[in-house]
Amino acid sequence: MYTPDAPSLPSAAPLTAAAAARWRAARTAWRLDSRWLAVVPLGFLILAAAVEPDTGGVCNAQGICRDSWGESLAIWTVLAETVLLLARPRIRPLVPIAALALFWYVPNGLVTPVARWSAVLLHVLLAAVLIGADLGRRKARQQLDELMAPPVAFPWTAAGAPSPVRPDGVPVGRRVLGCLLLVVAATLPLYGLWEQQRQEERDAAAVRVTGTAGEFDQDGLLTVHYQAPSARDVLKAAPAGSPTGPTATLDVWWAERPKPGQSIPLLLDGDQVRAEGDDYDPSGQLVFGGLIALPGLLLLGSALAHDARRRRPGFVGAAPALAVRVRADARGDLLVLPVDGPPDGPALWRLKEWERYYWARDGHPDLPEHPGPGWLPEHPDLEGNEEDYPEPVLRQDPDEDEEEYGELVERATPEQAAAWSARAARSVPAVLYRGPDGPDQQLLFRPALLDGDPHWVAAVVAPAARSPRLTRQGEHYRERELAVRALSARTLADAPAAGPDTERLPALRWELPLPVRALAGPLAAVLIATAVVLLGDSGWWSGLVRPLWIGSMAVFLIGGAASWQLVADRDGLRVASAFRVRQIQWRQIGAAAVHRGRLTIRLHSGEEIAISTWLMAALAGHFGERYDPARLARTVALAAHRPDLRPAQARQDRLGSPQHLLNRLSVAGYAVFTVAHYLL
């Protein structure tokens, strides 16, 4: 029978700060074990393309060249290694070892010593990181296994109810699609081999004649004059190199372009004319077949892993569990903390909730098959009963049926933002069943924490322990917007009360140092121009449009990040960026604060001015308040909401000098240099 009482957290083995320290010590190099490691083989591919000689592959007697099978296998090895590092299978520590063996022993795979020893260095380091992370993962899991005994009943088992978690279905779609892709991938090379056999038979039956090379047309096609067998007697009297006779065009991809008048052996097969030795190359079909086979193999591998999970025990009865605390990050994921640590302390790992189930006291009217009280699956299209959810901090306007979360943030008062910020930074106790890095999926049982959470939530979590994100910026929680409002509200609350003796704020000027503002744009232009010269390509896109676009964007971004100047005085806030100065009146500003290394000024229109302050904070520690961004943020926040505290003076400082002139000259000079380099 269902119990009418609300659930409670069961007693489980606590994850203490000491156990967390041992877990961190065991998980060596685990932050490096991410999908970013796929950049390593791609970087090696770029290095090999720069240092390996362009030999043209294997050439025949006619000078017609094809890529060697060793070179093609090396390229395929890099592609397969990149895909496997992105897919993150459990065998990934063996991937760089197998790739290095292929690079080293395949003939003509890597030729130059620089490429070969670079492959050794990069892949040995990559293997060391992956093997170290895997050994640390196993050691940390063993520690958790020892800590989590004995098993703890699942929340629905404790309530005397069956498990609401449905077993996963058979991955029919992945199996069928993977098999279809493999069939197509096998068909393409077979078709290429069949076409190659057909051409060999046509070559054996073709008539061999000698042609004379003519001129190349604008499309790169070579005109060839040849002697037809029926007209051979007529053409015997023609002088050597005469263009008399039939003509044909050849698409030439040879090591050396034929010169006018050069003899070329041809094969006549009916109306078709082709150069002798220009055999059919099935490598194109092999490449496309391999590209299609890779996702097919990944789909079948995913289906096999899914089948293995289906055969594992479900969420029935009891399982080993940990008592932890969880805190939300910027994107709505949950960070695991030790039970006796600070609520804002460093997290151990990150949980991403998949399927969610909530405790419904009276069931749901649209789910008559699940009468309450009990655990119900959470449907995004079904709204639960209000008594199953806590009171939200940011409540939707009843007159706005389609109001988005961002609109709730925009119309939040500073007091609401402060309450939200305090609630978002809190942590709650929870029970984590089975723990991370095991063979089975995890289950997290916790009270409400996120906006829109029911009073009690049980969520299925992936087995892997995800590393916490290095940033808390994201769209789900809009942390910076609300945190800036909350910090502004705190600044206003700490301000002195209005009165005749209240002292006004001083007018301030805050800016990056002059050398930084003056040299950022020109240095960016010089570096990009140097790259254009060293990596110059032909063609209007690679040689002109792309360098212009990339270089201009680099000067804009780098110059813009290092050109800030701000003046807060009686007339408002003046802001100088990379190319312009703008005036902002005090009534337009909604909030200002320094939060997580950024000076953020939010306007009532929703626009935001965000400036990185790490350099200025370092300078303020040595040179005083002149470079202190927190002092400027306090002045802006108070002046925007307290007219009695606004500065009484108006500063006549000139902003934008000299960075505006230098940035404009940098962009113009870089554009002129790029066009001249392309034309000359």
From TrEMBL:
Keyword Membrane (UniProt): yes
Parts of the chain that traverse the membrane: 32-49, 117-136, 176-194, 286-305, 514-536, 548-567
Domain of life of the organism encoding this protein: Bacteria
Keyword Transmembrane helix applies: yes
Region (Disordered): 369-388
Keywords annotated in UniProt: Membrane, Transmembrane, Transmembrane helix
Protein's name according to its UniProt entry: Uncharacterized protein
